[in-house]
Each structure stands twice: as C-alpha cells, then as structure tokens.
Amino acid sequence: MFANVVEIRATFHEIGQAIRAGKLGVEPHRYPYALGLAHGVCQAIHCGYDSLVAVELGVAHGNGLMNLCRAAAYFRERFRFSIDVYGFDNAAGLPEPQGYKDHPEIWSKGDFARPDHEGVRVGLPEFGHLIIGDVGETVRAFEQTLGDRHLAFVSVDLDYYSSTKRAMPLFQFAPERYIPALPVYFDDVRGLISMNPWCGEELAISEFNAENEMRKIARKDYGVHPQFYICHVLDHPIRQGTIKPKFSFEIWPF
C-alpha cells in the first residue's frame, strides 16, 4: 500500500484537509472524531495492522456514534481495512451525581437519556454496534469482544468523574489489544468555567496516570483539537522494542 513514510505523510495530510472540508460526511463539531480516528489508522499502517476498532463511551442520542461510523466507512473503503465501531451507553441517562467531582452545577440525573436505544441501533451500518448497560461492567467484558483486533480510537463523553473512572479499565487490557499510542478524545475537559483538574474527566485521567505505571494518558498539544489525548501503551511490544513496526513512527498534525 505504501513504500515509505513520505507517502504515508502525504496521504494523511490530504485526508486531514478532506476532513476539514467536510468531504467525509462528518459534521463540523465531530471533526475531532474523524481526525482522531485518522491518527489511529495512520499509526496502524505504521504498525502493519489492518483490523481495528473505534469506541465511543456515552452515546446519548447517537449523533457522535453515527459520525464516527461515517469516518470509519471512509477508512474502510479507502484502505480496505476492517474497522468496527462500538458505542457504549446505559440508555437511562446520567445517574445521580456523586458530589462535587461529578460537576452537579452542570449536569443532573437523567440528562442524555435515550430509552429508545433501538432507534440508534437500527440506524447503524453493519460494522456499527451498540452495547447497552452499566459502563463499569460492559467495558470490562469488552476485551474478549476485541479478540485479536486493535483498539485505534476512543471517545470519552461520560461527563461525570465517577462514570469516567468506572470506564478506565478500557485502557488496561493486554497491550497487544491496542495500537501503541492510542488517540483518545475527552469531551468534557474544556470550555466551561467550572471544569478543572480536581473534578470530572480530568480528575479521572490524573488518577489513572497515578495508578498505572505502564499506561499514561497525556494531552497532545499541537493543535489537532484541544481535547486530543494519547493513551501511551508503554508495555506494548513495539514500545518495548521486542517487535519492530513496519514503518518507523512519526506523528504530526494533519
């Protein structure tokens, strides 16, 4: 498919321009999903992987999940990759906030409820899947669902600290289940005046980093979008040097 990293770089520069021009059918406020998945696909090419999974945690009315499916459809067609998309939701909306860390000044119990989750499910393409249940339970069971595929992009839109904390096992599977530097979009870390590092998704990230020696989540500050993070899978065989990637790693904004 590619002879060298120069060809890969040029291709994904063109893809980045196409995303921002709206040519993938992704809505402008969901461009971060398409750009994040583009980085995941690009890195998978460097690794020699072609069977990928993208995840959205927190589906609500399904707009984000449908946009992620449109981006995945583009990459499936362009590179002939297998890319499946999974959305996780409880269909009941937000639970009761568990104190100040869950930003009760912003959200309340029942926000984002979608009891008719079948209405979302029937609109998905054949490679789109909806998993309904408590995220703390459904995420833990997802490693078996992944099989030998590689997680290539995650969107976290769970609002609360407590919900995000319960979902963090998604980043603790066997290292071979990921690309080595996993793009992650955190929706609720910017924009509102009361958001801060001691509450919400930011606190869940901080605690995850303190609790895990070989998995670290850090924001990538080069302008792709302000909520663009990387989960560094430091125990991945490629990052340990026991397996060589197909192409040496590069990451650049596009």
**Helix count, DSSP H or I runs of 4 or more residues:** 9
Percent of residues in beta strands?
15-25%
- Overall mean pLDDT: 93
Q: Using DSSP, what is the number of strands? A: 7
Helix content: 25-40%
Task: Report, as a whole number of angstroms, the end-to-end distance.
Answer: 20 Å
Gist?
34% of the residues lie in helices and 17% in strands.
Outline the structure in words:
- This is Class I SAM-dependent methyltransferase.
- It comes from Methylocapsa polymorpha.
- Strand 2 (82-89), helix 4 (117-121) and strand 3 form a beta-alpha-beta unit.
- Helices cover 34% and strands 17% of the residues.
- Strands 3-2-1-4-5-7-6 form a 7-stranded mixed beta sheet, sandwiched between helices.
- The mean pLDDT is 93.
- The relative contact order is 0.17.
- It has helices at 5-20, 31-47, 63-79, 117-121, 135-138, 142-146, 161-167, 200-211, 237-240, and strands at residues 51-57, 82-89, 128-132, 150-156, 181-186, 215-219, 228-233.
- Helix 1 (5-20) packs antiparallel against helix 2 and helix 2 (31-47) runs parallel beside helix 3 (63-79).
- With 254 residues, the protein is an alpha/beta fold.
Brief descriptors of the model:
254 residues, single chain, SAM-dependent_MTases_sf, alpha/beta, 9 helices, seven-stranded mixed beta sheet, 34% helix, 7 strands, Class I SAM-dependent methyltransferase
Q: Mind sketching the topology for me?
A:
Blueprint: H1 5-20, H2 31-47, E1 51-57, H3 63-79, E2 82-89, H4 117-121, E3 128-132, H5 135-138, H6 142-146, E4 150-156, H7 161-167, E5 181-186, H8 200-211, E6 215-219, E7 228-233, H9 237-240
Helix pairs in contact: 1-2, 2-3, 7-8
Protein name: Class I SAM-dependent methyltransferase
